[in-house]
Amino acid sequence: MSVGIFDSGLGGLTIWDAVTRARPDLAVTYYGDNAHAPYGVRTMDNIHDLTQAAVHDMWDKGCDLVVLACNTASAAALRRMQEAGVPEGKRVLGVFVPLIEALTERNWGDNSPPREVAISQVALFATPATVASRAFQRELAFRAIGVDVEAQACAGVVDAIEDGDMILAEAMVRSHVDALKRKMPTPQAAILGCTHYPIVQDAFQRALGEDVTVFSQADVVAASLNDYLSRRPEMERGGQSRMFTTGDPELVSARATQFLRRPLTFEAA
């Protein structure tokens, strides 16, 4: 069995990279639905159906635990999949909760009632579908009160990053931050609610200013996953690390190598 990391495209590689660096002994399977990327402009039902099909394929390939390293998939599909019932011995987790736990200074699994926290003005940058779902605000409300969240849909940023056009991506980041600041002039913290965005985290920080704390998901999710596995050692047994894509393996391998600046080889899902 291996731990599975799913994303609609290349963004989840930021999570995969952090997890594999933190736990080089862990068998990790990465699965990119590149044939249908990006998810951020699709309908909620379409995203759910694509995510569900991919996760079931990952379970069939031996991943008992699958992390949806895609905020859009987490927003549109995670709760519906969990409510519909997960097969015995299987698990599916999202990436919102670890980030919210970090923001609200909660330990893993702290289910105490919502309380006031130090940060009251939060900027959320995410894909249009994630913003429309309001999933981040819903999960945050379970853990904190008195937090004002202003969301900015960052259309085009994912496409620019996947195309390797970092000049365009950084220009778009500046534009989206300017738009956010017109609605919330002085955020205390910013959530990068897409796994692609760590690639341009420095651009977000420069545009927001050094007094704004920027929360990015890669290291936070890796730490949370390590904690989760330490409580469930039976989910770490054996397995082989592999990388799958629904797209063209040769093309995806080349783009992934450029994306993380390390050699990566994908095979057909």
From TrEMBL:
Pathway: Cell wall biogenesis; peptidoglycan biosynthesis. Substrate binds at D7, S8, Y39, G40, N71, T72, T195, H196. It comes from the Bacteria. Its EC number is 5.1.1.3. It is an enzyme of class 5 (isomerase). Gene3D superfamilies: 3.40.50.1860. It catalyses: L-glutamate = D-glutamate. Keywords: Cell shape, Cell wall biogenesis/degradation, Isomerase, Peptidoglycan synthesis. GO terms for biological process: cell wall organization; peptidoglycan biosynthetic process; regulation of cell shape. The active site is at C70, C194. Signal peptide: none annotated. One of its GO terms (molecular function) is glutamate racemase activity. The keyword Secreted does not apply. Provides the (R)-glutamate required for cell wall biosynthesis. This is Glutamate racemase. It comes from Jannaschia faecimaris. The lineage of its organism: Bacteria, Pseudomonadati, Pseudomonadota, Alphaproteobacteria, Rhodobacterales.
